[in-house]
Amino acid sequence: MNTVYATSANVAERRLAPPSLAISTVIFALRPSETSGRPTLWLPLVRRIREPFKDMWALPGGPLQHDESLQDAASRNLRETTGLAPQYLEQLYAFGGLHRSPAQRVVSIVYWALVQPTEAALADESENVRWFRADRLAELAFDHNAIVDYALWRLRNKMAYGSIAYHLLGEFFTLAQVREVYEAVLDRQLDPANFRRQIKGTPEIEETGEYLQGGKHRPPRLYRFTGTPGLGPDNRSTP
Amino acid sequence: MNTVYATSANVAERRLAPPSLAISTVIFALRPSETSGRPTLWLPLVRRIREPFKDMWALPGGPLQHDESLQDAASRNLRETTGLAPQYLEQLYAFGGLHRSPAQRVVSIVYWALVQPTEAALADESENVRWFRADRLAELAFDHNAIVDYALWRLRNKMAYGSIAYHLLGEFFTLAQVREVYEAVLDRQLDPANFRRQIKGTPEIEETGEYLQGGKHRPPRLYRFTGTPGLGPDNRSTP
DNA sequence: ATTAGTTCTAGTCATTTTGACTATAACTAA
DNA sequence: TTAGTTATAGTCAAAATGACTAGAACTAAT
């Protein structure tokens, strides 16, 4: 009673074939805006070199390999397309609509990542890999616009509650830099004094003795993040 | 260059075969505790009738069919095993660890559901389908204990922020019943007066002219939920 | 050397929210 | 009629929040 499937199935076979499984990642990093210079959200996309959606931009992704976990697949994908090691990586959602891909049914398990700006600055960029502002995306392949929208929604949501902003910064940072992250993601100005009061109230942040020199104003104190990512079911056992 | 896979693959073939995709659901409903009579969280499990984990209890689930969306598959699954139509259904997580299932690599996309107590009361129960208290589960098949734990965590989390408690109640309810839901899920007592003040502050609830008669005390006013589930990326277009 | 310009940082003050608690209302059962 | 129960409104202090003020500490210009 064996049922046999083929990868390049014709229409008749497709009805029987199981949906194929793919992993994609939405990778966020902060880069200075070309115009204002203030940090804004960017993400890398890859150009599709084959049908469907040939020549359109898409999220980095690929098939799941048999010997890697979902998270490992996302991590590998990220490394292969951008050369980056993510500071933060979490599952976003499994997208499985029937008509996401025209020819073949594909279920995509999507992860989202945050990378530090220092790393993001030296990320690979090429003819087929380019960074875009997250709030100014053109039409992407598949349902990837909707996926990015959802990832942005999750990022804003997590930022409002959890302590996720630090993963978009380096090891040391000023409170003003943290505020700039919030302002970039939430897209609104925050009162500097109230923001610092609130954020200093959390235990996940630690003063260092250092100050950031070089600005044309009073040098701000540097802080360090001491909390843990502490997330979904997969990362629970590793504190 | 066609690669051919078989469903009952041997070890050699397994290395090539793509992971199989399954859908499972964690279904929560309130039922009165046998001891205290207060509402507590219960969920239905199915007895496995074949290996692996034969005779152990497991979450309802099954393979994804080619012509149904992930959510439809979860919904169908729920209906087939319990006869229930969920009041609330949301994707929980995609579990894809390498060794979740001993023989074969399985990626499970898990949904979680909330059903009303009136419906839950007439849910099918049989030799192979039984309801259990969510906080007193024995050892389940696969990684299903961890999945239930994570679903409970999400439920508690969503309850603390969003307006999800109402989906565990019928169309009309008293504020004390809402409080009992919170107390059951969060597992702690809440001050009745403060709770009602807080919950009456939200716009998603509406007074009715009706009162619940029959208690041996002042009859409480009945309320109605007017908000929307408003959730993940799949339900966004349908407000 | 002085001054202006900048951000950093601590603090004030009124408003809102929260938690603990009191008191009355409205029913049932004895 | 009274005791028992929960419903409901309200009080009060504590805590959190939002708008704002002012001095501190640096750089750059005069």
Automatic annotation (TrEMBL), chains A, B:
Q: Which top-rank group of organisms is this from?
A: Bacteria
Q: Which SUPFAM superfamilies does the entry mention?
A: Nudix, Winged helix' DNA-binding domain
Domain Nudix hydrolase: residue ranges: 18-156
Query: Which CDD domains does the annotation name?
Result: NUDIX_NadM_like (cd18873)
Q: Where is this region: Disordered?
A: 210-239
Record PANTHER family: ADP-RIBOSE PYROPHOSPHATASE, SLR1690 PROTEIN
Q: Could you identify this protein by its name?
A: NUDIX domain-containing protein
Q: Which organism is it from?
A: Arthrobacter gyeryongensis
